Amino acid sequence: MSVTLTGVLPLIIIFAAIATAIVSRWILKRYSLAVRKGMRKNIGQSSARPKKQLIDSSRPTDPLIVMELSPSTLNANNSTIYKRTKQANRSAALVYLFAGSVYAILLTIVWQLIAGYSQGRFFFLLACYIWPVILTLWLSTGFSKPQLKILFGGYALVFMLAAIFALFRNPGQTTIFQLLFLWFYVNGPGTLLLLAFLRRKVRAVGPLVLAFLIVAIIGSFIAVEVVASNSSLLELIVQLAAPVGLNAYVIFFLILFSGFLIFSFFGYRLLSVLGKKYHLKQFSDQAISIDAIWLLFAVVQPINFTFEGWYWIFSGPVAFAAYKIIANTGFKYLRSRAIKDDGKQLLLLRVFALGNRSAQFFDIFSKWWRRIGNINMISGPDLVTTAIEPHEFLDYISGRLSRQFVKDEADLQHRLATLDRRSDPDGLYRVNEFFCYNDTWRMTMRKLAAESDAVLMDLRGFSPRKRGCIYEIEQLLHLVPLSQIVFLVDKTTDRHFLNQTFQQLWAQTPSNSPNRQVVDATVRLISSEPNFDASVQGLLRLLLGEDKTFLSVNR
Q: Which end of the chain has the lower number of beta carbons within 10 A, N or C?
C-alpha cells in the first residue's frame, strides 16, 4: 500500500496535471471556434436597426460634453458601496486565512506526531503548510499589484523568521539549505502542478478537466493492476491478441486505454454532479478553482507521511475537510450579516479585438464587481474562454452548446426573466454570458442596456480601423442615462475619432431618449493609465453612481 501511495498516486497526479494543461487548451480552442461559428450564423431573426424616433427640433441639440477623468481625482474610498465591497473582499480573505491556518496546523501536528515534537520545527512547518493560503488569496481577491507584492513579501518574511527561529532552536542540527529543501519538498510539486491548470488561459475549465482526468487515469492503473493480478485473465487476453499479431506493448496500451475508457464514464458523472451543484448555487466557479488548490495540496503534501504508515495519507483529506467546514461556516456567517439585495446589474461591452488585454482587465475588475452584483455581457472571442462557466462547458462537451444561444425575442425574455441575480455561498455574484447569433445580438444588447443599473464599455483600441462597436455606442446614447455609463480608454484609443463619433451619434439621438432632457449632457471617460489598479477603483465609484460631482443634472 505504501508503494502505491508513494509511487502510483504521485504518478497519477503528475500525468493528470500535465494532460490537463494540454487537453484544456485544446478544448478551449475548439470551444472558441464553436462559439465564433455560432456568432456568424443567422437563424432568420430580423437584424435591422430599431426604427428611429424623430429628433425633437423644438430646441437645438447642444454638443455632447466629453469629459476624461483621471483616476487620481476619484477618491473611491469615500464611496459607501465601495467601502462595503472592500470590506467583503477583506472578510473573504480572512475566512480563507483562518480556514487555511487550521489545515496547516493539522498537517503540522501530524508531522510532529510522526517525527517528534520540536518547537522550532513546529513554526517552520506551519509556515510551509500555510502556503496554499497565499495562492488562494492571489486567485480570489482583487488585490492590486502593490498589495500582491505585500502579500508575497509578507509570506517571505514570515517564512524567513520561522526559518531563523528553527535554526536558533536547533543549532548544528539543521542548515538553511535543508530548510529550503523542505519547503520545496512540501510545496514545490503542488505549486508546479497548479501552474499547469490554473493559468488564466485554462483556469476556467482546468479544475473540471483535472477532476475528469484523475478519475479516468486511475481507471487505467486499476485495469493494469486487475489484469496483472489475474493470471487467467492475462492468459485469455494474450490468446485473443495473438491471432491478430498484437505484441506486448500494444496489449499493455489497450489495457490502459480500456481502463481509461471505462472510468471516463465515472469521470463524466462526476462533472455532471458538479454541474448540477453549480446550477443549484451550492458553490461558485471561483470556489471550484480554490477547492482544486486545497484538494491537490491535501493529496500531495501527506504523501511523505505514508513511509511511516499508509493510513497517514488520510491526514490530507481530513485537513481538507476541516478547511471546507470552517470556510463554509465563515461564508455562511458573512452572508447572514450582509445586506440582502439582488445586487446591481452591470452590462460589460468592449472592443472584441482587445483579445488578451480584455481578459486581463476582466480578471481584475470582475473580482471587485462580483462582490457588488452580476456582470452581464454578450459573448465574444476576447472573453469566450475566460468567462466560460461549468454548465456552458458541460453543454459543449455534451454537444448541446446551441441551447446556450439566444434564438429569438421570446427566448431572450425568458432568459432575462430567469436570470440568476442572487449571490453564491461565498458572496460572489455570477457572470451571465449571452451567446448570440449574428441576427440576435443587436436585440440582446438593447435589452440588456435598458435593464442594467450600470454600463461599462471598454473602448481601448477604438479607432477608424477598429470601429465595430459604433452601434453599441449609438444605442447607449439613445437608451441609457449617461449617468449610468462609463467608457474606459487608454493610449490606443483614438480620441479625435472617438469624440467625432460621439458628436455624430449624439446629433441623431431621438426625442424619447432619457438623455435629451439633460442639461450639459456629458459622457465620462476614464483612462486605464498609468495606474491600472487606481483606474479600477475609479471605475467602481463612477459605475456605482456615487460620484455626484460628474453626474449630469436633470432639467
A: C
